[in-house]
């Protein structure tokens, strides 16, 4: 009976929220259109062209057996540290390089290939999703803060926080796993890895053109879903602000900001960042009442938490593979706390000393990269990204039409 009432209340709540959202769209059509265009521009210029190559290459590497090959080689590292198979190392590296939500997509793909158990997939998805370096150095540090040097402390804190989450989530599901038959970890063996590579390739006897077409079609389809979520949450964030709900809910964050010894003026920017990291990071950078270190700590939390927009994307991807979302959400909270803490602890050695020109033990290439390569890469992405997006959307349409015609021909 209680479950029945709970289901009814859930139905009423969802219906009410959808009705309120539709009503607010009618009341604020101009603001909704502006927010929708802003989300579309972000997807069109940045998200699509930056993620698509990684998605396509990942699909091909899985099909050719390269991921299985790397899995055998990385097993001695990933199994003791994170309690996941060696193939998790590939998802981890690609997730850090390409950003949200690549880690979730690769985890779901490996799970569907039966290279991960359910618990291992939940562990892997929890620490393989992160912001990519291009966004941290190019958009946030150089773009919003106009301070490329800040990217170093943000990036180091972000990825150290991710590793810390992985080390904690290794204990997730350990009791349930102990009741199951354990997989015996293999030692490093290059001949066995090569045999695994060959066997995996032979299993997939499709021609190269078919594999490439399937990789493009699957990647673009995922990115279309991601674009829909970006636009939806951009509009939702704007409507919450227009209806003054942001001002009503933001005070709840003030108590947490006081505990963290951060200015209360960061409440609305952080609240916006909980929905969408780009807008939140930009608003935090424009808060004049906060010192730079306080802005950096708040930005680190927002980047690590990912925002409900990213989490909705991940939830959709994981749901298709029947992987639970709850461990991922808990991991994002942990990642936010870890990243903010590391930013505070590393502020003096990684920012103050390097900004003052004092000698440190940081490699020279890390000093040069924030101001040059990442910033230039971000500029080129915004300049030529739309052309790449348009080309692959046309290619996707052609592949879908071709597949449909071939299906009709066989029937």
* Rough outline: globular
Question: What string gives the helices and strands in order?
Answer: HHHHHHHHHHHHHHHHHHHH
Whole-Å distance between the termini? 49 Å
Q: Tell me about the biggest sheet?
A: none
Number of strands: 0
The percent of residues in helical segments reads: over 70%
- Which segments are poorly predicted (pLDDT under 50) over 5 or more consecutive residues? 363-370
Instruction: Classify the beta-strand content into a percent band.
Output: under 5%
Report the C-alpha radius of gyration, rounded.
22 Å
Number of helices: 20
Structural class: mainly alpha
Overall average residue pLDDT: 83
Concise summary:
Pfam families: Gate. With 411 residues, this protein is an all-alpha fold. The protein contains 20 helices and no strands.
């Amino acid at each position: 009976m209680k479950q029945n009432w709970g289901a009814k209340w859930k139905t009423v709540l969802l219906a009410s929220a959808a009705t309120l959202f539709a009503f607010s769209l009618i009341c604020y059509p101009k603001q909704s259109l502006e927010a929708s265009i802003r989300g579309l521009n972000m997807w069109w210029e940045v998200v699509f062209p930056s993620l698509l190559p990684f998605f396509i290459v990942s699909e091909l590497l899985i099909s050719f057996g390269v991921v299985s090959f790397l899995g055998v080689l990385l097993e001695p590292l990933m199994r003791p540290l994170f309690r996941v198979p060696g193939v998790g190392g590939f998802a981890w590296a690609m997730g850090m390089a390409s950003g949200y939500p690549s880690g979730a997509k690769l985890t779901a793909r490996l799970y569907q290939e039966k290279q991960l158990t359910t618990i291992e997939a939940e562990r892997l998805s929890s620490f393989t999703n992160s912001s990519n370096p291009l966004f941290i150095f190019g958009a946030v540090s150089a773009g919003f803060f106009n301070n490329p040097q800040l990217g170093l402390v943000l990036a180091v804190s972000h990825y150290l926080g991710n590793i810390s989450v992985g080390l904690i989530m290794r204990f997730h599901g350990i009791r349930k796993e102990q009741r199951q038959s354990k997989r015996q970890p293999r030692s490093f063996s290059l001949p066995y890895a090569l045999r695994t590579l060959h066997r995996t390739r032979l299993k997939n006897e499709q021609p190269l053109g078919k594999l490439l077409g399937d990789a493009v079609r699957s990647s673009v389809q995922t990115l279309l879903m991601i674009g829909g979520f970006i636009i939806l949450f951009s509009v939702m964030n704007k409507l919450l602000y227009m209806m003054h709900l942001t001002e009503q809910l933001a005070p709840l964050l003030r108590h947490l900001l006081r505990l963290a010894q951060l200015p209360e003026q960061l409440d609305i920017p952080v609240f916006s960042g909980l929905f969408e990291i780009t807008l939140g990071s930009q608003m935090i950078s424009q808060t004049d009442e906060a010192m730079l270190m306080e802005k950096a700590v708040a930005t680190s939390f927002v980047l690590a938490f990912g925002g409900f927009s990213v989490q909705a994307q991940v939830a959709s991807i994981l749901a298709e593979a029947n992987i639970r979302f709850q461990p991922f959400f808990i991991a994002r909270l942990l990642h936010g706390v870890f990243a903010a803490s590391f930013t505070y602890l590393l502020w003096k050695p990684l920012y103050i000393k390097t900004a003052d020109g004092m000698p440190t033990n940081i490699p020279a290439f890390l000093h040069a990269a924030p101001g040059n390569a990442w910033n230039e890469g971000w500029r080129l992405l915004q300049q030529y990204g739309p052309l790449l997006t348009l080309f692959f959307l046309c290619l996707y349409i052609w592949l879908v039409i071709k597949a449909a015609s071939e299906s009709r021909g066989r029937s």
